[in-house]
Design a protein that fits this description.
6 helices; about 180 residues; mainly alpha
Length: about 180
């Protein structure tokens, strides 16, 4: 087994447990918003909440592990210091942290939206099975269908944005309570 693939001797257990806590907090908040705004039943909204949060977490950690070796030494040192000791050495790191938090928030929002749209499209019951009579719709009915799709797409975007904002707000409050 190559040495680069060996497990590290020190694990950031605190970071792993906090990520697990964040996912456990985000799932019910986002499932509740999906249930109320998109009118899913509770099981479906919980399924979508679990799916989009776990997949986005895996994608986020994958991006982190790919980009981490490319970081400058000072940023790596600050990251390690924060993960193990919950503080920063240099005062300029907080600006970088705020910028990174905005990027992560909007990146997570985009990933969750794409995942939810993909799940909604993949789990439709017979999406392409249409009867012969349905194919011969009037133009007015076609335009109603297009406007309904636009409305649903806007509703999904707004719902995912609200759900992501609420879960990130609660997680930010927990992080602020943790730092005191």
């Amino acid at each position: 087994m190559p040495e680069s693939w060996m497990l590290p001797r020190i694990f950031p257990i605190g970071g792993i447990l906090f990520d697990f806590l964040f996912v456990l907090i985000a799932i019910p908040i986002e499932a509740y918003v999906l249930h109320k705004r998109l009118k899913f039943d509770k099981k479906t909204s919980i399924f979508y909440g679990i799916s989009i949060n776990l997949f986005s977490s895996v994608i986020g950690w994958s991006i982190f592990f790919v980009s981490e070796p490319m970081l400058p030494i000072q940023v790596k040192s600050e990251l390690i210091n924060y993960m193990f000791f919950n503080n920063f050495k240099s005062p300029g790191t907080q600006t970088l942290l705020i910028l990174t938090a905005f990027i992560i928030f909007f990146g997570t929002f985009i990933v969750k939206y794409i995942l939810l749209r993909g799940l909604l499209l993949s789990l439709l019951k017979e999406p392409f099975a249409k009867k012969e009579e349905e194919i011969q719709l009037f133009n007015r009915q076609k335009w109603r269908g297009f406007s309904r799709i636009k409305l649903q797409s806007t509703n999904v975007v707004t719902t995912v944005l609200i759900a992501n904002s609420l879960s990130y707000s609660v997680i930010t409050i927990i992080l602020l309570l943790r730092s005191k």
